[in-house]
Amino acid sequence: MRGLNISDEIAEYVARKVHANIREMEGALTSIYAVASTSGRKITLELARTALEGQVESVAKHISITDIIEVVTGHFDVRLADLQSKKRSQSVTEPRQICMYLARNLTKHSLEEIGGHLGGRDHTTVMHACGKIEQLQKSEPKMRALLDHLTKQVTQVTRA
Fold this sequence. Notes:
Blueprint: H1 8-17, H2 22-39, H3 45-52, H4 65-76, H5 80-84, H6 90-106, H7 111-117, H8 123-139, H9 141-159
Helix pairs in contact: 2-3, 4-6, 4-9, 6-8, 7-8, 8-9
């Protein structure tokens, strides 16, 4: 559409790097074009890699809320139905809040989307949960270690 002439190899590279939506893909192509035009260089695979370095996540690093929920429910031995329920017991509330915190920090989903995955909760509930877990992480080394452990598990699940 923009008259940008790229090889199949470069198109495949961009397709592997960009996974979110068409706007992200257009942004990636615009970045490649901008680097090429400002440097006066021809668009090559190396130039594309340089232009997109650090800008987009690879498909292997794409983390979904479902991935996070699976890891947290497995770790705390709670059911998805319990996380999505109205239950307020500590055994359910803490894992639910941890899911919200991890989803907010590891994904690009909105507060509303995160709340929707966890029983249709309001965005303010997600904000409260994230704030609470953030405070616990700062004040309790056990919580910090737990969040680090769960984050590693989630990222390993998405690479498998």
